[in-house]
Amino acid sequence: MVKEPVHFTRKLKDTTFTLGQPLQLLCTYSGSPRVSVAWTKDGKPIWASYQYNVRTTNSSCVLEILNSDRPAAGGTYACAISNGAGSDKCHARVSLEHKTAPSFTRRPPESLVDSEGKTVKIEARVSGSQPLNVTWYKDNNEICSCHNYEMSFVNNLAILCLKNSSKSQSGVYTCSASNEAGKASCLVSVTISGMSASHQIC
User: Fold this and answer.
1) Selection from 14, 16, 12 nearest residue 63 by Cα
2) How large is the greatest C-alpha to C-alpha distance in the chain, in angstroms?
3) Cα distance from N-terminal residue to C-terminal residue, the chain
4) Which of 50, 120, 129, 188 is the most exposed place for a label (fewest CB within 10 A)?
5) Does the keyword Glycoprotein apply (predicted)?
């Protein structure tokens, strides 16, 4: 019986990963059975261990990198296959992308007091790696844009406006910012009274 030389049908591709995120390399192959598979990193052999999980099926080779929370996970990985009738090899460069968790470079005051009917504006400036997602909460309930609230997030400045404010909008407001690297939040207590307040916003 003539053996079909083994060859890759899908080779490894260069990839960029974020520190701490799951990292998996996959390639597929075709050819007669009894295929030998060998992985290397930066030219040195690697095996299944506390750092790597190696899986091989009848048509694929998978390498899970378990220490992706360390910069040492980056490097050049190669997979070599052979079955006696032929051999093939592919490689990929794995680069580390440095992501910065969100942080507030400007927070709103801890408390705001204003009178009914005014527009109350809460502002917070956020730094961190993009994409950044910002969500506002009132008393731990997520706020959606509607006739009472208006939200924007432009140039890292998060703004929540309480339009035509009323006493029912009094409460604790939370600005939550998140990205792939982490999350951060800040709080402000808002009191809307029926009398004129000495401190006005907007």
Assistant:
1) 12
2) 94
3) 84
4) 50
5) no
One-letter amino acid of 88: D
Whether the predicted model's global pTM rises above the 0.90 cut = no
- Within the chain, all domains assigned CATH 2.60.40.10 are found at 7-96, 103-193
Superfamily of domain 103-193: Immunoglobulins (2.60.40.10)
Of 165, 161, 159, the closest CA to residue 197 belongs to: 165
The residues near 29 (Cβ < 8 Å, ≥ 6 apart) are 6, 7, 8, 9, 35, 59, 60, 61, 81, 88
- What is 7-96's CATH number, 2.60.40.10, 1.20.120.790, 3.30.200.20, 1.10.760.10? 2.60.40.10
Structure token digits, residue 33: 């059975």
pLDDT in tens, 67-126: 877 888 899 999 999 998 999 999 999 998 777 899 999 999 999 999 999 999 999 999
Residue 65 near residue 73, CB atoms below 8 Å: yes
108 class by beta-carbon count within 10 Å (0-12 exposed, 13-18 middle, 19+ buried): buried
Residues 6+ positions from 73 with CB-CB distance below 8 Å = 17, 23, 65, 67, 94, 96
pLDDT tens per residue across span 152-181: 999 999 999 999 999 999 999 999 999 988
Structure tokens at 37: 């598979």
